[in-house]
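Hello forum,

I keep getting stuck at the same step: I have a sequence, I want structure tokens, and every attempt I make locally crashes halfway through. Rather than fight my setup again tonight, could one of you with a working pipeline run this one for me? It's a single chain of 195 residues.
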Amino acid sequence: MDSRATLSTLVALVAMPVVASAAGGGTITGKVEAAPPRYLPDTVVFLKSVPGAKAEPKTAILDQKLLKFTPHIVTIVAGDTVVFPNSDTIAHNVFSPEGSYNLGTFKPGDKLTHTFPKPGAYTQLCSIHPEMLGYVWVGDNPYAAAVDENGSFTINDVPPGTYQIAVWNVKLKAPDQSVTVTAGKPTSVSFSLKR
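Reply #2:
Ran it on my machine without issues. Output:
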């Protein structure tokens, strides 16, 4: 009985550093301003390089509802898959000029998928409804976030270290910045986008 209890205690002690290091990331928060502000929704904030960053392949959803791509921007990592459901009551089509793919036309309730092998920003369009516009932003690491309607963003679980943080926007630019992340603490960064 005592040997089992001792073994359990040893296993718990060995596992503790692993749990602590997995939860030891920091958070980057901030705000982006844009001039003109109409381009603010087309913005992603991301870390340019995170050595050793690996992410398990995941699946994201870019819905089609009320003649819009929802959410407006999906951020994923190279190798991830995006599911495109049609939640509208009419047919839609999804294609991307940058990705050279066309998923064809699909009916209400149908779902189509596409896997993105390379980093980049991929415009999502519907040939039936030209007013529809969305983006799939593909990074080489998982530390990226699309801004909300106020320009705010949060990037969670960033490994401690110093990085270059950058902004992608369809029309506007801002210089990269250096950011230092400390385990368990928030770090704030702001950007001002201009032509």
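Residues 1-22 have pLDDT under 50 and may be disordered. If your local run keeps crashing, start a new thread with the error log.
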